[in-house]
C-alpha cells in the first residue's frame, strides 16, 4: 500500500503528459488479400518448394557424399550381412514357425477336418458299389476327387494372402528371405495335406491322393505367396483351374506337352492306375468283353 501511494504522488508531480500522436506517426496496417495466404497442404508445399530452405536442402541431397560417411559405411555397414542366417537355416526356421502356427490354430484344423470327413462320406455314399467296367464313371469319380483337392486349396488363398502381413514386417527387419517364405509356405503344408488326403482316400477311394494334393495344393500356395495382392491371385488361380480342367483329358497330339505339365492329369493317372491295375478289375473287364463278344 505504501509503495502504491509513493508511485501515485510521484506521478502527479511529474510533468509527463500523454500527447496525441500526429497523423504521420500513426502506424498504418494494410489488409492482405486472403487469396495469397496458403490454406491447403498443396499450397504450403508449393510455397516451400520456392523457398531458399528447400533449394539448400536439394543442393545438399544432390551433392557428393561426404568422404567420412562413405568410409563409415565401408567400415561398419558393409561387413554386416543382410540376413543373420544362411538360406537353408532361414528356410527351416520359417518352416518350423509355420508348422507351429498351424498346430496352434485349432479352429482351422477342426474346420478342415470336418470338411474333409464330410466330403469323403459324400463321395463314398454317392458312388458306393459303382460298376468298375464303366470307364466313364470311373474317370468321373477320379476327376471329381482331384478337383476337390484343387478347389479346396483355392478357397484358402485369401487366408494365405492375409498371413503375408506378418511376413512383410519380418522382411523389413531382415528376419527371412522372400524365397525362404515362399518355399516354407509350400513345404509346411505337406503334413496337413498328407493327413487330409489319407482321411479322404480311406473314406472315398482306394488310392492315395497324396500326389494330387501336393501337385495342386502347392501351386495355389505358390500363387498366394508370389502374387502381389488378392486382386491378382484370384484371377490367376481361376485361369489355372480352367487351364487344368481344359487340358486334363483328350487333347490333340500337338498339345500333348500341355497335358504332361498339368498336375490334375497326373492326379487322375495316379488314381486310375491302382484302381484299374488290380487282378479283380482286369478279370471283371475281361469277362465283360467275353460276354459282349458272345452275345453279338
TrEMBL record:
One of its GO terms (molecular function) is ABC-type transporter activity. The chain crosses the membrane at residues 106-123, 135-152, 241-261. Residues 95-202, 218-272 form the ABC-2 type transporter transmembrane domain. One of its GO terms (cellular component) is membrane. It is found in: Membrane. The keyword Metal-binding does not apply. The keyword Transmembrane helix applies. Pfam families: ABC2_membrane (PF01061). InterPro entries: ABC2_TM (IPR013525). Keywords: Membrane, Transmembrane, Transmembrane helix, Transport. Its main location: membrane. It is a multi-pass membrane protein. This is ABC transporter. It comes from Phytophthora megakarya.
